[in-house]
From TrEMBL:
The lineage of its organism: Bacteria, Pseudomonadati, Pseudomonadota, Gammaproteobacteria, Alteromonadales. PANTHER family: ANTITOXIN HIGA (PTHR40455:SF1). GO terms for biological process: regulation of DNA-templated transcription. This is HTH-type transcriptional regulator / antitoxin HigA. InterPro entries: Antitox_HigA (IPR039060). GO terms for molecular function: core promoter sequence-specific DNA binding.
């Protein structure tokens, strides 16, 4: 995975400026970047918690509605219904 420079993220404002997809993911490419960023942010979880708390729901929203993930989501829903 490509490494992103997260050292310069000092505030939520700078995070949004550097990574505009933090609040809304629009493309599979932005989704991939968000996953890479999340992986890096969790390396120092306590310091990055404010950004993680915004990015994680953004990733979840995208993954629930992304056309390229529809089949996966449908299969997951079937599995979850079988567990209940």
């Amino acid at each position: 995975m490509k490494h992103m420079n997260t050292e310069s993220i000092t505030t939520l404002e700078s995070a949004i400026e550097q990574f505009p997809f933090i609040c809304e993911i629009r493309t599979p490419e932005e989704h991939e970047k968000a996953l890479i960023l999340m992986d890096q942010l969790t390396d120092d979880y306590d310091v990055n918690l404010a950004i993680i708390d915004i990015l994680w729901p953004t990733i979840e929203r995208y993954e629930k509605s992304a056309p390229e993930l529809t089949k996966f989501n449908d299969e997951l829903a079937k599995l979850n219904r079988g567990i209940e």
